[in-house]
Description:
The structure holds 2 protein chains of 2 kinds.
Chain A: H1 3-6, H2 18-50, H3 65-89, H4 93-121, H5 131-162, H6 172-197
Helix pairs in contact in A: 2-5, 2-6, 3-4, 3-6, 4-5, 5-6
Chain B: H1 3-17, H2 24-29, H3 34-62, E1 65-66, E2 69-70, H4 77-111, H5 120-142, H6 162-192, H7 205-235, H8 246-253, H9 267-281, H10 288-301, H11 319-327, H12 329-345, H13 352-374, H14 376-381, H15 389-400, H16 406-434, H17 440-466, H18 485-518, H19 564-567
Antiparallel strand pairs in B: 1-2
Helix pairs in contact in B: 3-4, 3-5, 3-16, 3-18, 4-5, 4-6, 4-16, 5-6, 6-7, 7-8, 7-9, 7-10, 9-10, 9-12, 9-13, 9-16, 10-12, 11-13, 12-13, 13-16, 13-17, 16-17, 17-18
Amino acid sequence: MNMATTNLPAAPPARSRNLLVATGFGIAGTLMYFGGIFGVYLRERAQVRSSGGSWIPDKAHIELTPPGMIIWTLLISVAVIQWAVYSIKRDDRQHALLAVGTTLLMGAMVLVQHGWQLSQMNLVADEGPTTAATLIYTIVGSYMVAFVIAMIFVALMGFRALAGQYSSRQTDGIVAASLYWYSLVFIYFIIWIAVFIAK
Amino acid sequence: MTENQTETESNAADSASGPLEIGGLAGVFGTSDHKNLGRLYILFGLSGGMFALILNVLVRFERINIGSVGVLDFGSSNQFFQTWSLSRTSLLFFCVLPLLIGLATYLVPLQVGAPALSFPRAAALAFWTWLIGILIHVVTVFADGGLGEPDPTSQFAQGMDPEATELSMLSIAMVVFGLLLATVCILATIISQRPQGMTLFELPLFSWSILVAGGIWVLALPVWLSNLAISWVDFQGGDALRYGAVENIWDQLSWLWSQPMVFAFAIPLLGIAGDIVPVSAGVSQRQYRVQQIAIGALGGLSFGAFAQPFFNPDVTNQAVFVIMGLLVLVPILAFLGGLADTSIKGSPSISAHLILSMVGMLALLVGAGASAFYVSGPAVGAIQEIDDSWLDGLISWLRDVQGTVLATAVMDHVLIGAVIGSIAGIYFWAPKLFGYKLNRNAGMLAALALLGGLVLAGGSNIINGILDEGDEVFRSSAYDGVWDSGAVEFLNVVGGIGSILLLAGLGLVLVDITISVFLQKGDAEDVNDPWGGHTLEWATDSPPPIGNFDQPPVVENERPLLSPVAAGGDEL
Lengths: 199, 572
């Protein structure tokens, strides 16, 4: 046995993973929230279709280009926010902040694309309210709210990193923000498939 | 010794003896200390319980008809529905959950040896979000809002207000968001702030039950919020198609007060009883791991977000629902068996908290029994292949009880059982919470009143369910086809008396807290560890100082304070 190592002081207690744990519960809650809406959406759509009805109003314009752009933007943002995690783990705060800023910029782009898509869908203007319109507005609206929360979370962690709170010794904040971001990208992937592709 | 010195020492002695120090308005509004937040939750939760039980009395009185004359007449089914639904939302969101979260906010950091709650500012935000939300909700219901109407044709004729209804939905979402945020803070504390040597399986049973219950709440309440969001979006603009139609709103939300979901709000009752009984018996809990598994199993069997009759009308006849309804008895019986085993091994000292915890467990057991009865029709129907005509008749009769006040009986027993369990916890931990013991005799009397009230109020609903009184008592059709209207009317009088007894029992607890704590008439002697507690919260002063412990505790088992002699007989 190497006596030099046995004489070293004891390792400090493992640091608290409060933020990661809380983010895990937050992600679970968010997934259940959207799971609840998806459950209603898929069930109601199946019932309408099985009775021979049309789910999406005939005069609605649900095109694939905006959701396609959104999903690609989100997929790229996954790589970008992972770049923030990679950088903060190497004490490269400059690139971490650059990545956080870029992620927020992409988030803003996603919100703009959502807004544009909602204005173009014409879900209720011509045919009045439908159950499909109600559920699609609930899904997209809820997603936009969750996304704004994610952007605030990322921005807050970015500011904390800027203040020196996060480094290679403590990366929890950036990692937690990135995990929440990934979960929202996953949720949008479901929206993209279930609502826009499968219609 | 100078006069100033004497005064300073006297103040220090007062502080050490532990009277409740609110610290003025700044201390109340600005606090993020888990102990202050816990006390605030508990006091508002008890007040909310009084409010919910007053509404419950009004609902019970409306159900009483003497001859052809009603004792109380709300004027319309809509007005009756507002009171009925508010009594349910108040009981759950204004009483049961805040009481449990209040106890957990105060005690969990102490039980796991943490200096503070995780995210104290978020916990404070959660409390104020909850409180403001519930106040807005109550006001909007009284302003002709509420969570829908059973009779939309007369909605506007009766002055119902769509804007108030919309605000009712938003405010109740705010309430649930606040409760969820508080739950996440508690769960993060349990998982990340345990001291060295304490694994999850060495958590005290109360903290373990909060971990299980909180996990279920975090998974199920967002689904309920999604139902609410869909209703709210559809409700916008006054052209609601289905989900936001006033006659449908409550139907989408009611699963939270129905089995199996309602059992999730009583899980911490097991933890409270599991902490009280071994301490009262003076021995360690027998079969500790089995008790933990029983609590976990109750959690698994209470996840009811899938059981939404509005979207799946046949769900109460489906296998998963029926099996969960039957099996929910098993963990409760197993847990009670463990408590009985521990009591037999030790020599329990009779106390108010022990009696209250047993009354709460009894209520939960009866609720689980009623739940099993509720699903017995489909359960027997599953073996219909061996039938003959009499079995068909039996199955038909058993299925019929599903639309009756038996469902209310399940809810009453489970939620009021949770309230009684919380009161048991308040009596047990009062020295730690307030620095004073509560009055033993007052606690005993409250236990008696609550037990009597539950037997009369809940029991009358069970029998009226068998007599086929409909569950939607705000509709006149609820009384169509009852077997014996005279018996139903008599039992509703009995239920009314029971609801008054429940109110009296809770009122007595509030009076006791007022006298013992706020008027400082309670026993403040030996409050640090008056019962010979087994868990870490009893290792510090009462009330605990800032930071809770002088040194971070190191523990090796789930009852670090129990003497090795008393713990020696444990088998796990």
